[in-house]
Design goal:
By secondary structure, this protein is an all-alpha fold. It has a domain of 246 residues. The chain contains 27 helices and no strands. The longest helix has 32 residues. The N terminus is likely disordered.
């Protein structure tokens, strides 16, 4: 395509209608350029700009095919980001400007660093709670209670909805999907429908909390919506899940699964970690609301507290080992085994607790993917393409239509780059419209299994049972919930549109 560029192609691809059409196929592309205040040139006619678009489209095609070609999504994203910024620098140098490109890339790097450090702290807490057995305890309690299939369907959905605002939608969806699979056994129809319910509930629950989804986190960190203001989306989010769940529930057969009896052990310090996490969330909110500091500073302070507690756990384990208790355990001293409670507290490999293992288990591919996407978005924004598209979308079509389209865009690709690009465009909208785009970007991703991190993760966990096509079968029901939530938002929060 690049080799055969000509003037007719240039005229075709730069038209707003064409870019809007590309939105249907590559939503991130359409939202990928921003009217950044640092950008001083309109380079939409530049062949370098078209080459940058081609690079981005090729990279995103590889990202979408990740499951098929087994290429981690961060790799093409990072390479594309580097190439695009080389093109940006060349384009600006040709205009006689040797400084603005550097300022622009530093601006985008700051955006990434705040998001990266916030997520790193949150992921480390979640991994530590998982390692201490908190989530496994919840799973075992659910599978051992003898609930019917329909009860499990509603309980897992309800828990997913109320857990995701705190534990994030990805972690919540994986936990509830594990419960569904443990209960469902060989009942593939139940597992498939229940997994759809979990994904929809987790995404809906994440839409009314800054900690529930990365898109809401970005909106909060940008200072557009204050922490407490997200909660007006609670009822629209609940409507989104309930409408879809009610329809899905008719596909759940009556009956009870086979009884299961499991035991779960919570390791020493688990509830202290939970308490520290709650304190960390409170600090992040307080730093932002009362001290007018970035919330990431509160999260990193909380991470430091967790690491101090990890040091205590490490010293405690070392004291056991130095006393020779582990040797007694290995040699079969049952009394010493019981008295010391080593099975709960110390790894059987004889190594003391290490907080950095939980930090290493963070989703590094996802974090680096964010770097690539954010830099790609900023690089394409430097060429100025979406100043034109922004005017067309939010000016000609109107904010409501544009924000509803954002939800459909989120269903086709991950909602994170879509929301980041909207924030970079910073269109003129009232408070109600910013809440609307927060809602649609969060719940719109549920319409397809690939539209959210929760859906992609559950597809991997329930491989062959919960699939793209099994989800697609119920997309119409999810779409009904999507429009119902938008209607609920206008009805309940109508005053915010004034």
């Amino acid at each position: 395509m690049v080799a055969n560029l000509n003037s007719a192609f240039f005229s075709f691809i730069k038209s707003p209608i064409t870019i809007l059409a590309l939105l249907t196929l590559f939503p991130v592309l359409a939202f990928a350029a921003s009217a950044d205040p640092l950008s001083t040139f309109n380079l939409t006619d530049s062949w370098l700009g078209y080459f940058a678009i081609a690079i981005f489209v090729a990279a995103y095609a590889l990202i979408i095919l990740e499951e098929n070609i087994h290429l981690k999504k961060s790799k093409p994203a990072v390479v594309a980001a580097g190439v695009i910024w080389i093109l940006v620098a060349i384009a600006y140098i040709q205009q006689g400007d040797t400084h603005t490109a550097e300022e622009l890339v530093r601006h985008n790097l700051l955006e990434f660093v705040e998001l990266f450090l916030f997520l790193l702290a949150a992921m480390t807490y979640i991994n530590t709670m998982e390692e201490r057995g908190v989530f496994n305890l919840l799973r075992v309690k659910l599978v051992s209670q003898g609930f019917t299939l329909k009860q499990i369907f509603w309980i897992t959905g309800l828990l997913a909805f109320f857990m995701s605002p705190i534990a994030d939608n990805l972690t919540t969806a994986l936990l509830m999907a594990a419960v569904v699979m443990a209960v469902g056994g060989d009942n593939t129809k139940f597992i498939s429908v229940a997994c759809i319910n979990v994904v929809v509930a987790a995404n809906a629950g994440g839409a009314f909390s800054p900690f529930g989804d990365i898109t809401t986190l970005m909106v909060w960190q940008a200072g557009i919506v204050q922490f407490q203001e997200f909660f007006v989306l609670f009822i629209p989010s609940l409507v989104n899940w309930l409408v879809t769940a009610t329809i899905l529930s008719f596909a759940i057969a009556k009956g009870k699964p086979d009884e299961q009896h499991e035991e779960a052990t919570v390791k020493f310090g688990a509830w202290i970690v939970v308490g520290l996490f709650i304190m960390t969330v409170a600090m992040a909110v307080s730093f932002h609301n009362f001290l007018h500091l970035p919330p990431v500073l509160g999260m990193m302070t909380g991470l430091g507290m967790l690491k101090l507690f990890g040091y205590y756990l490490q010293r405690r384990d070392s004291d056991y080992m130095n006393s020779g208790t582990v040797d007694n355990l290995v040699s079969g001293d049952a009394q010493m085994f019981e008295d010391s409670m080593l099975p709960d507290d110390i790894s059987k490999d004889g190594k003391p607790y290490d907080i950095y293992k939980n930090l290493q288990r963070a989703e590094w591919d996802t974090l680096i993917f964010f770097y690539g996407i954010i830099l790609c978005v900023g690089g394409l924004g430097a060429f100025g393409y979406l100043a034109m598209v922004s005017e067309f979308m939010y000016g000609d079509l109107g904010a409501t239509t544009a924000n509803i389209i954002v939800g459909f865009a989120s269903a086709l690709v991950d909602n994170i780059p879509v929301m980041f690009a909207v924030l970079e465009m910073s269109p003129e909208m009232n408070h109600g419209q910013w809440l609307l785009v927060t809602l649609t970007a969060g719940v719109g991703g549920s319409m397809l299994s690939i539209g959210s991190a929760a859906g992609v993760a559950v597809m991997g966990q329930a491989r062959g049972v919960y699939t793209f096509f099994s989800h697609l079968k119920w997309s119409w029901a999810i779409m009904l919930g999507y429009f119902a939530s938008i209607g609920a938002h206008f009805l309940i929060n109508g005053a915010a549109f004034a």
